[in-house]
Each structure stands twice: as structure tokens, then as C-alpha cells.
Amino acid sequence: MKNLYSILLLAMFTLQLSAQDSINAYIEEGIAHHDNGDYDKALEAYEKALVLDPQSTVVNYEMALSYFHKKDYKNAIARADIVIDKKDDHIISAYLVKGSALDMMGKVKESIKLFEKAIRKFPDNYLLHYNLALNHYKLNQMDKAQEHVIHAIESNPNHPSSHWMLANIESAKGNTVQSILANHYFLFLEPDSSRSSEAYTFLRENFGGNVTQEKDNAITINVSMGEDDDPFSAAKLMLGLMGASNLLPENADKTPEELFVENTESFFKILGELKDQKQAGFYWEFYVPFFYDIAKSDHIETYCMYISQSGNEKAAAWLDANTEKIEAFDIWLKEYFQ
After folding, report:
1. Contacts of 233 (CB under 8 A, 6+ apart)
2. Strand partners, 221
3. Chain centroid to CA 289
4. What digits encode the pLDDT tens for the residues 237-264?
5. Alpha-carbon span 274 to 261, nearest angstrom
6. All structural domains of the chain with their residue ranges
7. In whole angstroms, what is the distance from residue 58 CA to residue 82 CA?
8. What's residue 247's pLDDT?
9. Exposed/middle/buried for 155, CB within 10 Å: 0-12, 13-18, 19+?
10. Range in 1-15, 40-54, 61-75, 302-316 the model is least confident about
């Protein structure tokens, strides 16, 4: 009798393994179709897996994702809800799909409430904070957007989109220096994507300050100093002075690339010196020390060419011709972030 019982248990275990293998195969098939943009075929594969395990959170999440990309937001939410109710490892991903689906349906305030609920459960997840910041940004609630995108950066400093969003938030708020710092870090992380060229242009337009030169060569610097206690007021003035200096006769023979390197080095160094005067806060503690150290290193030129490669053909050519300098900068970065 014992032998019969053991045989039955072994048979049941074998069947379970076989069923799981089949589920995994359908999931892999579905993911392949999804990655190829064929969401209907992906959903067909997931439906077959669902027959074997209707409550599978993996299958339901993958279905939610395919429905979302198919722009069938109602079904995306329905599948995401199944995953959220199960409270397993895929719950954060399900919150992201549901929140994004609500957003795409025009239900931004509902999406905000959902992300706030998810953040109470998972306060350190950078994507939840990023998506919540994005919703606040869409509603022009810049202070809240700034708060949550900074949370996202603190949780994952290597997420380029968070820095790019912060650059745009600060630009919308009229905070030029903060916007430039965030933009620099975005380009450091993502120098050669489709949006990097836009970011580089954005940086160059804001980096020289608001300077005009009249027909008689008179140079006018327009600087908005903001509040009296603005810790970035000196840096704002520095931007204007750099922009004016670029127009002086002694700089007439310098290339735009040379001026960009000089201006970047000066900008980073003045911020580093201001930081030494006990400035505090996210920008002073995250961005400024890193850029100050680059400015004091032998790699400032390499850094400037590296972040310029998408928007400047000469910078891209410089990188091709200076592989040893790039390798040295890479070694410096690895040691810096150890």
C-alpha cells in the first residue's frame, strides 16, 4: 500500500512539473510575440497558459502588459487587479501598468491616488515615485512632481528619465542652475539616445546665461536673481558672466567645443566652492560634489565631449580619435563609484 501511495505522489508531482513546463513555454512564446509587437498572438499564448493556471500572477501580469501596449486599457486594468489582489512579487509591476492605464484613459487623478497607495506599501520603489511625479507634472503641480522625482533619483540614481524630468521641472519653475545640473547628469547617463540631442540643445541654450550683444558690441547680461536667500544666485550670475565672456574678442578664435569645456569647468568649480560654504540640500549633496570632482580631475574635456556626442558631430569625432582618454575616464569613474 505504501508503494502505491508513493507511486501516486510521484505521478502527481510529475504532472505538476509537466504542467509548469507547459505554462513556462506558453509564457516564453507570449513574451516573444509581445517583443515583436504582435500583442494578439501574445495574448493567445497567455490564454493557453491561463487554462493550466487561471490564477498565475506571471501570466496575468504579462497579459496586462500586452493589453496595455494594445491600448486596451480596461482589460489591462482587469488583469493588473488580479495580480495586485494576489500580493506577490509582481505587485509593483501591476501597480505600474494599472496606474499608467488610468493615466492613458485620462484618469490622471485616479492614477495619482493609486500610485500614492502603492508608495505607502513600497516607499523606496523609484518607478512608483517616477510615475507619480510624471502625473503631477502633467497637472502642472511642479512642487509635488519635483518632490517625487527626487525620491526616484535617491532610490535609483542611474535612472536617466528621472534626471531628464527633473531638468524639465526646474526649467518650468525658472530654476536655471538646478535644471542644468539635472540635465548634465541625464546626459552623463544617456549621451547617445534619440532624446539626448534635445537635451544637449536644451543645455547649450541655458548654459550661457541670457546674454545679448548690440550692434555697437555692447554686451547686456540679463540675470533673474530670484529670492534674496537663493543659494544658487551666485551660480546664476556666473552663467551670465560666462555667456558674456564668450563674446569677448579674446575668445573669438576659440571653437564652441573649447568654450563649452571652459565654461563647464568654471561652472562646476564655482558650485563646488559654494558647496564648501556649507550649502545643503539634494542638489548640493548629489550633483555638485560629483561634477566638482570631475572639474578638478584630468577628465573634464573627455566628460564634455562624451555628453555632447549626440548633438555635436565634432564631439563624436573627438571621441573616436581619443579612445585612450575615454578609457582613462572610465577607469576614473569606476574608482570614483566604488
Report:
1. 225, 226
2. 211
3. 20
4. 777 777 667 666 676 778 889 988 998 9
5. 20
6. 22-104
7. 10
8. 63
9. middle
10. 1-15
Within a 13 Å sphere around the CA of 205, how many CA atoms are in the beta-carbon half? 9
Q: How many secondary structure helices (H) and strands (E) does the chain include?
A: 18, 2
What DSSP assignment string belongs to 216-275? Answer: T--EEEE----STT-TTHHHHHHHHHHHHHTTSGGGTTS-HHHHHHHHHHHHHHHHHHHH
| End-to-end Cα, the chain, rounded Å | 62
What's the gap between Cα 224 and its chain centre?
28
pLDDT at residue 7 greater than cutoff 50: no
pLDDT tops 90 at residue 87: no
- pTM, entire model: 0.86
Give the closest residue to 69 by CA, choosing from 98, 103, 41, 34.
34
Element (H, E) at 283: none
Rounded distance between C-alpha atoms, residue 182 and residue 139, angstroms? 21
Amino acid in position 285: E
Residue 226: phi, psi to the nearest 5?
70, -145
pLDDT at 13 (0 to 100): 41
How far is the C-alpha of 53 from the C-alpha of 18, rounded, in Å?
12
pLDDT at 90: 93
Cell numbers found for residue 158: 542611474
110 burial (CB, 10 Å; 0-12 / 13-18 / 19+) is: middle
Listed residue (53, 65, 135, 132) closest to 93, CA to CA: 65
Q: Which of 69, 65, 100 is nearest to 79 (CA)?
A: 65
Amino acid occupying residue 300: I
- CATH architecture type of domain 22-104: Alpha Horseshoe (1.25)
Strand (E) or helix (H) holding 210: strand 210-213
C-alpha to C-alpha distance for 223 and 210, rounded to whole angstroms: 7
What are the grid coordinates assigned to 319, written together? 571621441
